[in-house]
Every structure is written in structure tokens, then in C-alpha cells.
């Protein structure tokens, strides 16, 4: 790469992709959920949770590790080729071993059950995971290709879904289409990247990477002992229906959060590059700007989701999924906590190569969550509400400890609770009277949601303009909506 790519352009491409990824579920979600119902959706989610545990070990932390390490050497084609080849060999070995273990586990534990064919189809995804090299594109900040490729493939998926899935009897076709989506996405990326990055097996380094990968594996998969654990325990101790309610709330949260995390994902390569080539002060300045930008969108999104939980659930899943309304409210709080933890893990511990701290802390928080869950089981108190509430509590304990270590041990000058950051949360509380007034005057779900988003968005922007918020004026200047003071 001869030129530094603009973070703003990368955010735009990543945001464009995530907006598309939001629109797609909004289009197909209500259609699929009304056809399948809570039980079948819960079955998919339960199977996906089991598959995810194996996928974590098959992926072996290569995505996060490769993203960081390639970002540091991306200007040296020879080093990139050698590192890519080494990681690919490790990926092949990990995926083959884990896939074999997965199919043995599935045959011994689920053969003859309704879950069995779903798990077999997900097993195919494990095989395809060998070709998952999106991290190489992100390390080189090639978000334009990722965006275009993903949008084209998802359009194909939408067409096939509406054509082939008509009733609940098409359940396995619906699951198979997800496997087809993985196949097209992975293969296209792999073929494209091979045009510019060649294999170089003459200088493979396996052992030197495995230790770091094991640390990243634990660090980057907190869901093992958090949200994924919730779904496994709900499916094991209650029923698929409860997993369906939980998963619906999680999915909606992920749809919204995916757009917000664009800011985080696209800046990891740049932060890695800055800290490797510039000063600690430059790193802290960029980190502070990223946190501020992230909170500017995170807080209003979370507050808005909390206030519109009923409308969102009923519009997305229908009346059958109404028990998920309260779950989504708790998920809106979880989204804030998890967002802060994501910054700590990926933009501080990981970028500064202090993964060991993060691994220990995440593990301790996860064990706390596991202990609380078993207490809930013993006292017959486990349900989707208590599951996400206790996970939120465990995450909150985790970020408090992480923040103390970041400030005192890592000496990173990050004032998370500064007025510059917290003002976005304070302003977002203005949404409460606005939404309740709209709900009092209007009964139509679509109008409530639409007017609430527009009304809250306008008020939020106006208040920030009145406060002469630096972030808003910077964005307006960048897009030539207002003129720079320097011009």
C-alpha cells in the first residue's frame, strides 16, 4: 500500500455494508420468522450455538491475529505472503481436526433428533471455514471490495429465499441457504485475494504463531462464556422456544450493533499501524477520537432500542415473539456494556499486544457468569430474562476491572467517563418524553417507530449543534455541508 487509506472512506464502506446487512434482515427477518415461528427459529439458534463452540476452535483466533499482524507489515509483500501461508496451513490443520471432532460429537449426541440435520448442515460450514480470509482484506483496508462482494451475494440469497422458502416445511432449505451464503462469500474472497497474495511455503513459521494464536483464541471469543453460554443453557434446561425468544433479541441487537461497530473494526488496522510506527501520544489521541465517535452513536441507539422494544419485536417477529420484548430491553443495556468491553479488548489490550491480561480477565468474568447461571438452574430461576441480565452483570464487572488495569497498569490515558463522552448519553435521555408522547398520540406500530426515530434523531442533532459538538461539525465539514473555518 503506497497511500494511507482514509479512515472516513473505510468507515463509509463498512457502514454501507452494515446498513445493507441491516436492511437485509429487516426485509427477510419478518418473512422468515413468521413462517418458521419461535420453535424452529429456536432450533436454528440452538444448533448454531453448538456449532459456534466448534467454530471458535476451528478458526483458532486467526481472524484477529492475522488482522493485527498483517496491518503491521502490509507494505512488505514478501512478509505478507509468508505470514499468510503460515496462517493458512495452521487454519487447514485446525479446521480438519475440529470438523472431525464436531461430526463425532453430533453423531453420538444428536443422531435421530430433529436437531441432527441442522447440525449436519452447519458442519459443512466448518469445512468451508478454511477459505475464510476476510481478515486479509481488512488488514489492507480493502473495505470497498468487501462491501460490493457481500451486497451482491446477499441479493442472490434474498432472491433464493423468497423463491424457495414458502412454508415451515421448507425449514431445511432455509438452513441450507445459509450454508450456500457461506460458500459463495468464502470462495469469491479466496479467489480474489489469490490474485495479489501468493502462497510461499518455503519459509513457514508454525510454532512461533501457535502460542499467540491460542491467546487470541481465548481473548476474542468471550461469547463462549457469555451470550453463547446463555443459549446453550436455555436450550439444555428449558426448550428451543426460549432460545428463539432470546436469539430474536440478540439478533436485533446485533443488527443495530453491526452498524456501530463499523467505527471500531475499520480502525483496528490503523491503530496497530500507528502504535507500531508513531508515538504513544498519537495512539491515545486517535483512540480518544474513536471512543467519542462510537459513543455518539452507541448511546442514542441503545436508548432508542430500549424505548421501542415492543414495536421492534412485534414488527420483526410478530405477536408470537412478544415474550422477547422484555429481553430486548435488557439487551439494550447489554449493548452499551459489551460495546465498551469491545473497545477495551480490541483497541487497547489487543493493539498493544497485552492479550494475556485480557484473556485472564475475560476468563474470570466468564466463570463468574457460568457460576451465576448454575445458581439460577439450581433455584429454578433460569429464563431468557435472567440469562441476559446476569450476563450483563458479569460483563459490567469485567469492564470495571479492565478499566482500572488500562489506566494503572497499561498507563493509557483514557478518560472514559469524561463529559465529552457522557454528554451523548445525557442527551439521549431526551428521547424518553418524545417517544412516550408519540406512543400516547399514535397506536400504529410502524408510525410510532418511524416518527420516534425521526423525532429523536432531529432533537439529538439539533442539541449537538447548539452545543457546537466537535464531532458533528467535523463530519459536516468533511461532507462540505458547512465550510471549514480554515477555508
UniProtKB/TrEMBL annotation:
<feature type="transmembrane region" description="Helical">
    <location>
        <begin position="145"/>
        <end position="165"/>
    </location>
</feature>
<feature type="transmembrane region" description="Helical">
    <location>
        <begin position="12"/>
        <end position="33"/>
    </location>
</feature>
<feature type="transmembrane region" description="Helical">
    <location>
        <begin position="321"/>
        <end position="345"/>
    </location>
</feature>
<keyword id="KW-1133">Transmembrane helix</keyword>
<feature type="transmembrane region" description="Helical">
    <location>
        <begin position="45"/>
        <end position="66"/>
    </location>
</feature>
<dbReference type="Pfam" id="PF01943">
    <property type="entry name" value="Polysacc_synt"/>
</dbReference>
<keyword id="KW-0812">Transmembrane</keyword>
<feature type="transmembrane region" description="Helical">
    <location>
        <begin position="114"/>
        <end position="133"/>
    </location>
</feature>
<feature type="transmembrane region" description="Helical">
    <location>
        <begin position="171"/>
        <end position="193"/>
    </location>
</feature>
<dbReference type="InterPro" id="IPR050833">
    <property type="entry name" value="Poly_Biosynth_Transport"/>
</dbReference>
<feature type="transmembrane region" description="Helical">
    <location>
        <begin position="87"/>
        <end position="108"/>
    </location>
</feature>
<feature type="transmembrane region" description="Helical">
    <location>
        <begin position="385"/>
        <end position="404"/>
    </location>
</feature>
<dbReference type="InterPro" id="IPR002797">
    <property type="entry name" value="Polysacc_synth"/>
</dbReference>
<feature type="transmembrane region" description="Helical">
    <location>
        <begin position="249"/>
        <end position="268"/>
    </location>
</feature>
<feature type="transmembrane region" description="Helical">
    <location>
        <begin position="357"/>
        <end position="379"/>
    </location>
</feature>
<feature type="transmembrane region" description="Helical">
    <location>
        <begin position="424"/>
        <end position="442"/>
    </location>
</feature>
<feature type="transmembrane region" description="Helical">
    <location>
        <begin position="213"/>
        <end position="229"/>
    </location>
</feature>
<keyword id="KW-1003">Cell membrane</keyword>
<dbReference type="GO" id="GO:0005886">
    <property type="term" value="C:plasma membrane"/>
</dbReference>
<feature type="transmembrane region" description="Helical">
    <location>
        <begin position="289"/>
        <end position="309"/>
    </location>
</feature>
<feature type="transmembrane region" description="Helical">
    <location>
        <begin position="448"/>
        <end position="467"/>
    </location>
</feature>
<protein>
    <submittedName>
        <fullName>Heteropolysaccharide repeat-containing protein</fullName>
    </submittedName>
</protein>
<keyword id="KW-0472">Membrane</keyword>
